[in-house]
């Protein structure tokens, strides 16, 4: 027996429609690439998205066509989020920080029809122009005054195209399982793999993201996503913010400490999203400029493990709650979080800090399980480790145009994370399978050592890798970026780690560097560190 409910479809455009109807005057503030601060609201974003949909129709974009963007976090990019998906086409956000060969590969693999590009990335596309076999035109996301002199052709001006179109659009209705967005993983080996999101998945993800279980957004929140809109949909912020009716602050390309700090102060930002290195950058700026007071209340941190030293620093110096989250491009991306609920906030600080370095609990709709090497389930007892697998309505079931299902065993997504889940459902990621150090047949967690080292007052950033060893197969090597004017030695770190980890976990060597290599999304490239320092313990 079926229920008697209406069979209405969950479509992305309805998130913006809701914001336009219920929160029309709520601000969307955007730092544009031309250098100015642009102010609009959800009613204006709706109007311009309608104009942009008319533009796409005029350019003969059909349902299912892939439309690429190489763009920062701005109102124009947000308008594309809704216009492209809203007409039934697929928004393909391209990471401009990938290697040129990877950008060429994913645009051709996706068979993108048009490319919308921000000013700083025009030169990046010029040498690829004749290699992008499916692309019929390039739209520069600026006004006529700032149009560049470029060899890209056919070439169009974003604002000129919009100005010629009506502000009303008759948005189509279609199946909610229709493809809406495409994002390629920023993997460190092999070609990037495409994750194709549906309308249904993104609407459900937006509802979960706005809820108390993940980001806890409401009309009083001022949200600033410091994760790029070209990477995993800025963690769902362009969808969840209109749904929740919160003020949205889009930082453009301003990912440096000064730019972040300026926007936080001028716009009264209360919640930020970003990887740990973003918040390290902000802290370094605040520390250099003796800034202590801020409107920022929470930083929601994912993409890499949360260092205990940063958790404590943000609470004790700035009174900002460090909120861990976990997810992947393949998981929508948000799946777990640890918001500052009463049960967390009443804990003794030391206990709470430890939980803030976890990945938190799964949101409704996300199921987690641990599996051992024999594909058997592992108990969620807080001690047993296994590979984390997840499934749910906004989690990928396969990669785009890829029949290899090895990463999707038995209807799960195998994440590649070695993890522990405690009886209360809190996820602790022990390490990535590829990063765990295998020494003498036993595992050493690089993340756990990094967590402790991050608390040393002389350490700004750190990473631990497994270096090859004649006797033990691998041994840990510690790589450190020191704080300014700090003096520190390998023996200092050995002394600091004493009694905090098992003696045999102690790194055999400490290497001091000026910076750690990172991906375009701020993750430390441990494979690069292994290439550089993987043989330092060999004769």
In words, what does this structure look like?
The protein has 539 residues and is an alpha/beta fold. It folds into 3 domains: 13-274, ANL, N-terminal domain (Rossmann fold), CATH 3.40.50; 361-432, Luciferase, Domain 3 (Luciferase, domain 3), CATH 2.30.38.10; 437-533, GMP Synthetase, Chain A, domain 3 (2-Layer Sandwich), CATH 3.30.300.30. Helices cover 28% and strands 24% of the residues. It is built from 16 helices and 26 strands. The strands form 5 sheets. It has a 9-stranded mixed sheet, sandwiched between helices. Strands 7-6-5-3-4-8-9 form a 7-stranded mixed sheet, with helices on both faces. α5 links the parallel β5 (112-117) and β6 (137-140). α1 packs parallel to α8 and α2 packs across α3 (75-86). It is globular. The model has no long low-confidence stretch (mean pLDDT 95).
Salient structural properties:
539 residues; alpha/beta; Rossmann fold; Luciferase, domain 3; GMP Synthetase, Chain A, domain 3; 3 domains; 9-stranded mixed sheet; 7-stranded mixed sheet; 16 helices; 28% helix; 24% strand
């Amino acid at each position: 027996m079926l229920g008697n409910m209406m069979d209405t479809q969950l479509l992305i455009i309805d998130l913006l429609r809701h914001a336009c109807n219920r929160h029309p005057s709520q601000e969307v503030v955007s730092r544009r690439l031309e250098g100015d601060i642009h102010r609009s609201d959800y009613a204006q974003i709706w109007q311009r998205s309608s104009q942009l949909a008319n533009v796409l129709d005029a350019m003969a974009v059909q349902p299912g066509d892939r439309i690429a963007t190489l763009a920062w976090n701005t109102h124009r990019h947000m308008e594309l989020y809704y216009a492209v998906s809203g007409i039934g086409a697929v928004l393909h956000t391209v990471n401009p920080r990938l290697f040129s060969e990877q950008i060429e590969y994913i645009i051709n693999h996706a068979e993108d029809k048009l490319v919308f590009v921000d000013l700083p990335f025009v030169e990046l596309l010029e040498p690829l122009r004749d290699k992008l076999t499916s692309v019929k035109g390039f739209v520069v996301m600026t006004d006529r005054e700032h149009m560049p002199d470029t060899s890209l052709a056919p070439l169009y001006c974003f604002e000129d195209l919009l100005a010629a179109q009506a502000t009303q659009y008759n948005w189509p209705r279609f199946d909610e399982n229709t493809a809406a967005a495409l994002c390629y993983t920023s993997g460190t080996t092999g070609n990037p793999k495409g994750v194709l999101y549906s309308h249904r998945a993104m609407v459900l993800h937006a509802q979960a993201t706005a809820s108390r279980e993940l980001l806890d957004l409401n009309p009083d929140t001022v949200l600033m996503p410091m994760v790029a809109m070209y990477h995993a949909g800025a963690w769902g912020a362009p969808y969840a913010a209109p749904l929740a009716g919160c003020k949205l602050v889009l930082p453009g390309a301003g990912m440096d400490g000064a730019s972040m700090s300026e926007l936080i102060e001028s716009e009264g930002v209360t919640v930020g999203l970003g990887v740990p290195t973003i918040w390290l950058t902000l802290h370094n700026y605040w520390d250099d400029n003796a800034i202590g007071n801020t409107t920022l209340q929470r930083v929601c941190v994912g993409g890499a493990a949360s260092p205990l030293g940063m958790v404590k620093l943000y609470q004790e110096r700035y009174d900002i709650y460090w909120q861990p989250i976990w997810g992947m491009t393949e998981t929508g991306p948000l799946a777990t979080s640890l918001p500052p609920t009463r049960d967390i906030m009443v804990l003794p600080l030391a206990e709470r800090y430890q939980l803030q370095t976890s990945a938190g609990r799964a949101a409704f709709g996300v199921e987690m399980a641990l599996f051992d090497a024999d594909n058997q389930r592992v108990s969620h007892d807080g001690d047993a480790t296994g590979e984390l697998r997840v499934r749910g309505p906004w989690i990928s079931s396969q990669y785009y145009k890829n029949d290899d299902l090895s990463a999707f065993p038995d209807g799960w997504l195998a994440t590649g994370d070695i993890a522990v889940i405690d009886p209360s459902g809190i996820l602790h990621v022990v390490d990535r399978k590829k990063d765990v150090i295998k020494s003498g047949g036993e595992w050493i967690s690089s993340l756990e050592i990094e967590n402790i080292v991050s608390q040393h007052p002389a350490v700004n950033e750190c990473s631990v890798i497994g270096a090859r060893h004649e006797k033990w197969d691998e041994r840990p090597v510690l790589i450190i970026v020191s704080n300014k004017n700090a003096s520190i030695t390998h023996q200092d770190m050995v002394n600091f780690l004493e009694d905090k980890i098992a003696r045999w976990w102690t790194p055999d060597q400490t290497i001091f560097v000026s910076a750690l290599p990172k991906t375009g999304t701020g993750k430390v490239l441990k494979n690069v560190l292994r290439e550089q320092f993987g043989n330092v313990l060999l004769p």
